[in-house]
Write a structure and sequence with these properties.
Elements (H helix, E strand, L loop, with lengths): L1 H32 L7 H27 L15 H25 L4
């Protein structure tokens, strides 16, 4: 229904916000610290969060949108089931992304 459509649009918008924010932070780290940034945890934490966002944004969201109309026929997939399996995988990626974000905040890298 409309709630799922709204949620999908919000996830896409938030994904783009995350991509822009991560790109800014990565460029800022390299600009301010130089190539030493690649030896520091903050850069790798932000890069990990960016990878999570990119996977969800460009791999899983389009796949979920493709599977959703045929949800009644999508009973077997690569991971054993249709739409709910892809939602679970996307949720796990969000969990990993959240843990990386918490580590980033806990370390004080965002100051």
């Amino acid at each position: 229904g409309w709630a799922a459509m709204l949620a999908g649009k919000l996830f896409r918008v938030i994904g783009w916000v995350g991509i822009v924010a991560a790109a800014y932070l990565l460029l800022w780290y390299v600009w301010t610290v130089g190539l030493r940034a690649f030896r520091a945890a903050p850069l790798w934490l932000v890069l990990g969060m960016l990878v999570c966002t990119l996977v969800n944004q460009f791999a899983l969201f389009p796949l979920i949108a493709q599977v959703k109309p045929a949800v009644s026929q999508a009973t077997e997939g690569m991971f054993g089931g249709g739409l709910s399996s892809w939602h679970t995988i996307s949720s796990l990626i969000y969990l990993v992304q959240s843990v990386l974000g918490l580590i980033y905040i806990w370390r004080g890298d965002g100051k």
